[in-house]
Amino acid sequence: MKSLSFFISILFATGSMAQGISGKWQGYLTVGGNKIRFIMNLSKNADIYQSSFDSPDQKVFGIAASKTTVVQDSVHSEIAVMRAGYNGKWDGKDSITGNYYQGPTVMTLNMKRMTETEMASLPKDKVRPQTPKPPFNYDSEEVEYDNADKTVHYGATLTKPRGIKNFPTVIIISGSGSQDRDGTILGHKLYWVLADYLTNHGIAVLRVDDRGMGKSTIGNDPEKLTSQVFSTDVETSFNYLLSRNDLDKKKIGLIGHSEGGIIAPMVAARRKDIAFVILWGASAVGGAEINTQQNAYSLRKAKIDSVAVDAFAQLHKRILDQFSMVTKEGLDNKVTAIYAEWKATQSKETLAKLYATDNAIIGQDIRKMYHSLYDLAWMRYFISYNPLTDLRKLTCPVLAINGMKDTQVDATTNLAAIKEALTRAGNKHYEIKALPSLNHLLQTANTGDLSEYENIDETIAPSAMDVMVRWVLDIRY
After folding, report:
1. With CB atoms counted within 10 Å of each terminal CB, which end of the chain scores lower, N or C?
2. What pTM does this model have?
3. CATH fourth-level superfamily of 138-286+385-474
4. Residues forming CATH 2.40.128 domain(s) in the chain
C-alpha cells in the first residue's frame, strides 16, 4: 500500500496554444517548510496532448489524472479521484504561473521550462538485476478488452508457459495508487518480475494496467472510484480469461497485493469459479486500523515519544471509526466532541508534543484534516470497509503471505486476522506464512521502511516467489 503524496499522469489536452507549450517544466511546492520539486512533461502525439507530473524528491511518478484542458494561455489539469489538480497561466514562452490544489489546500506552483542541462542532471532509475530481459522461455501476448457496458477499456499482458498443458493462470491485482501493468515503482518492475518467475515455473499470468494507466481508460466518474469498483475490473479480467480457449477455466486464480489483497476476497466471495487466492501483504484489520498504524509509525519516525503517539492513535482511530456511521455534516460534530473529550484526558506534555490546540493538532486544523480524508471516496471506503466480511466467505484455497518487516501492513496482526476469518469460514485449504526479513514488496530489507525500497536492488526475494509457485502447483483442482 503505497503512500503517495502527489501525482499526475497521462492527461489529454485541447487548444490552439498547446503546441508551443510542449516540453519539460519544473517548479517547487513548499510543504511543511520543505521545497518539493515537481516536473511537468507536456508532449503532442497526433492530435492528442500527453502530460505527466513527476516528483523526483518523493520518488512519485505516473499517477493518472482524469482531465486536462489547454485553452489559449490557460492550463487546467484535474485529478478527480484525489480531488486535486493544477491551474496555470502560460506566458507564451518559458514560464507557467499557477496553483496546485488538493482538497481544500491550495499551494503556489510556478514552473519554468527546463534547460537541456537541467534535464540531463535528472536522476536516472537504476537498472534492477531482476527486471526480465529477452529472450523469454514463454509466450507473451499484449491483449485488450472492455467491460460489459463498454465504459472502460483495459490493456494487459498475458504470459503463458510453453510446452505445458492445463497450466494454472493468475491475475495480479495491484496495490493502492494508479499503477501500470508492470507495477513500476522506483525502477522496480514488481509485477513483471513476479509474472516472469511464475510463468517460467509453469503458471500463466495476466497483469493489467490500472484505470488511467497505459492502455486502460479511467472510465466515468473517476472521483467515485473505490476498491469495490476496482473489484469489478478484476471480474472483467477474469471473464476475459474465461472467454479464451487456451486456458484451463477451472484453474484461474487471483494474486492480490496490498489493496489488491482486499479486492481479491471481494471477487472470490461472490464468484465460486475463482480457483484460488493469494493474499500478499493484505490488510484484514480494516482501513481505519491500517491508517492509524501508519500514522503512528510516521510519528515515531519523527521522534515523538510513545505516550504521545499512543494518545494520537487513540484519537485518530476513534474519529475514523465514525466514517461509516455519519454524513460529512455529522462528522464535524463528532470530531469536535471527540477531540474535546480526548484533550480533557491528556497531559499538558502530551498535548504540547502533538502541537494540540483548541482547533488543531500536529499543525493541522482538526476538522479540515478529517474532511480531506472523508471527501475522498476511495479513502472513505477504505476506512469504512471491513475486509473480514468477505474473508469469512472464502472456501477456495487461500495462501496469505506477509513480510515480517512490512511497515505498511503489520504481518502479525493481519495474518492472525486472516487465519481467524478463514477458520470461521470453514476453509480447509489455507496456508498462512510470515516471511522473515522481507518488507511490503517482499524485498529482503533491513528496517522495512519505505525509504529503503529504492536502495534495495532486489525487486522480490526469489524465496517468496517460490512459496507462491509451490503452493499454486500443489493445489488439487
Report:
1. C
2. 0.83
3. Alpha/Beta hydrolase fold, catalytic domain (3.40.50.1820)
4. 18-120
